[in-house]
Specification:
This protein has helices spanning 12-15, 31-55, 73-88, 98-104, 126-139, 257-270, 319-332; strands at 2-4, 19-20, 66-70, 94-97, 114-118, 122-123, 143-145, 149-155, 158-164, 169-171, 174-178, 196-206, 220-225, 228-234, 239-243, 278-289, 296-299, 305-309, 370-374. With 382 residues, the chain is of the alpha+beta class. It has seven helices and 19 strands. An eight-stranded mixed beta sheet has the order 4-5-3-13-14-15-12-16.
Length: 382
């Protein structure tokens, strides 16, 4: 197995917060996407444990739940609507009064009026996860070529490998395309992919000494503040991740004063204690968005080419289920039933615009931008 990627994990994964929240995201997702996310979350404990054992590196996996909170009564009405939609998906969340929210997270602002607790949700550190994945893959015999794929090689109606940016060539009977938002622009791609970059800005804070002040946050908090959404993800390392904006700005990764201000404003409204923390990082990543905000999974029209892209806001969450199902397909040629709603043919010819041409998104996930080339039909995952 060959991984061709100049900087594995340095794209959307590097900027991601690592929330594993299919329940909290259920109100924003289609039913099929929620089911895929819930399935992937169920795989995460074993996935993280196996990966840590194989790599000898941590992943930062935690399963401490997500608390969704509302800042005022208008926001609480929005949260009630979200809860009703989650209920229709069969999602179990616990309604919380304002007092119960502050009992669960004592550092919440007294103005918080209520919330919902999703006990099964979790989080992972995407930067640690990417390092562990690369270490485990190479330890298992995978070769890492630190160079981008410039073009797919084809012949007799099927993929035969790839041409690398340095002029090198790789021969392979099966190719997994997992290049994030850049997937659509790959030369030699016979099928159109309506994948576009969606910018997201995110910041990281840290306390003095060993990390966050004791008791600042125990779990991920997602808040609605005067109609605006913000999330705060604490790490065992003492880091607090706050995100994330969503901007249709093309392939722009500029960190803006307005983006940082918006995140700090809303996060401080919910947890005033963050003002004592140091701002240690501010980055912008590009999520791979599709017209329906769902991933593209499965074989392309070009024989031998398998697509694993377009994960949008859920790339880290969907890593285990994507890795498992793609690897199974490469070994057996059998498509997983979970892929039924996510095939590349669902967009039709009209959905794909030529690379570089703007596309209008529908509404508001992040695997590393990489192409994986597998001569023996094996895959290290996303």
């Amino acid at each position: 197995m060959i991984l061709a990627d100049p900087q594995p994990g340095q794209g959307a994964t590097h900027a991601a917060a690592g929330m594993l929240t299919p329940v909290a995201e259920a109100a924003y997702a289609e039913r099929e996407l929620f089911a895929l996310g819930r399935d992937s979350l169920s795989r995460y404990p074993a996935f993280a444990a196996e990966l840590e054992q194989a790599s000898g590196l941590p992943t930062g996996f935690r399963q401490t739940g997500t608390l969704q909170v509302a800042y005022d009564h208008d926001d609480l009405a929005v949260l009630d609507e979200l809860a009703a939609l989650q209920d229709s998906f069969g999602v179990r969340t616990r309604p919380m009064t304002a007092r119960e929210c502050r009992e669960a997270e004592p550092m919440l602002d007294p103005s918080v009026v209520g919330g919902l607790l999703a006990t099964d949700d979790g989080s992972v550190d995407p930067r640690l996860l990417a390092q562990a994945l690369l270490r485990a893959a190479t330890a298992a015999g995978a070769a890492h070529f630190p160079v981008a794929v410039a073009e797919l090689r084809t012949g007799t109606g099927r993929v035969t490998g790839a041409v690398l940016a340095d002029g090198g060539q790789v021969t392979a009977s099966q190719v997994v395309l997992a290049a994030g938002w850049q997937s659509a622009g790959l030369a030699g791609l016979a099928c159109g992919l309506p994948v576009r970059p969606v910018k997201g800005q995110i910041i990281r804070l840290r306390g003095g000494g060993t990390g966050l002040p004791p008791g600042l946050l125990q779990r991920t908090v997602r808040g609605i503040v005067r109609g605006s959404s913000v999330y705060l993800v604490p790490r065992e390392s003492g880091e607090l991740v706050i995100g994330a904006t969503q901007e249709e700005m093309g392939a722009d990764t500029t960190v803006t004063a307005g983006g940082v201000w918006q995140l700090l404003r809303d996060a401080r409204t919910l947890v005033p204690g963050i003002t004592e923390l140091a701002l240690t990082d501010a980055v912008a990543g590009l999520r791979p968005g599709t017209p329906d905000n769902a991933p593209v999974l499965g074989p392309a029209s070009l024989s031998g080419l398998v697509l694993a892209t377009g994960h949008f806001r859920a790339g880290v969450l969907l890593a285990p289920v994507t890795a498992d199902t793609v690897a199974h397909y490469l070994r057996t040629g059998i498509k997983d039933p979970l892929w039924a709603a996510f095939g590349p043919d669902r967009f039709g010819r009209a959905a794909a615009a030529p690379p570089g041409q703007s596309r209008q998104p529908a509404t508001e996930a992040v695997p590393a931008a990489a192409a994986r080339v597998s001569p023996r039909g094996r895959n290290a995952g996303t």
